[in-house]
Design brief:
Elements: H1 3-29, H2 32-38, H3 43-49, H4 53-68, H5 77-88, H6 91-103, H7 112-134, H8 144-164, H9 171-182
Helix pairs in contact: 1-2, 1-4, 1-6, 2-3, 5-9, 6-8, 7-8, 8-9
């Protein structure tokens, strides 16, 4: 095993540990020392791989996005429904993402720029999905660009409701109901 491979594996281990610590304590409550301890490193050893807490946070967010990534042009409404079902099987990931998103709305939060850029890309991607499905107008008359923020809001809003009361909110069923409202078949 090369030194580079060992370093990449160690970075991945650190990111997984950071994800766990952030899920448990939130970003502000998570410390580099807690992450380092979880992977058997000193804080200085962790800083060798991630020079700042902000750099580690961005790596956590990027890793989470990689887990959900589909090749360009492959995203469809029915695949979004599958993603919602997949998220229901990983509450810790959803909780971490939601907590970081909530925290990031403050002006000085280190993930604010990340989420701002991410959502611009997500809205554009959702507009593309809607355009591929419905053309330039949805059955309601909205353009894909006008409907895209609403689609994203439903996805994120369902996650928050589910996290708060998973016994009462079935994310996957509710999202399929939303697709029906858009004009998608119940299928």
């Amino acid at each position: 095993m090369t030194a580079r491979t060992r370093s990449e594996e160690r970075r991945a281990e650190i990111v997984r540990a950071a994800l766990e610590v952030i899920a448990e304590r939130g970003y502000r409550g998570a410390s580099l020392a807690a992450v380092a301890e979880r992977v058997g490193l000193t804080q200085q050893g962790l800083l060798h791989h991630f020079p700042t807490k902000e750099a580690l946070l961005v790596a956590v967010l990027q890793e989470r996005d990689r887990w959900d990534a589909l090749p360009a042009g492959r995203l469809r409404l029915d695949l979004l429904a599958s993603l919602v079902e997949y998220n229901a099987m990983r509450p810790a990931i959803v909780q971490t993402f939601s907590a970081l998103l909530g925290e990031s709305v403050t002006e000085e939060h280190p993930a604010r720029a990340y989420f701002t850029e991410r959502y611009a890309g997500v809205r554009a991607g959702m507009a593309g999905v809607l355009r591929a499905e419905y053309g330039d107008r949805l059955p309601s008359g909205l353009t894909p660009e006008r409907a895209a923020p609403l689609l994203v809001a439903v996805l994120d809003g369902l996650q928050y409701q589910w996290l708060l009361d998973p016994e009462s909110v079935d994310m996957a069923s509710a999202f399929r109901d939303f697709l029906t409202l858009l004009g998608e078949s119940d299928g």
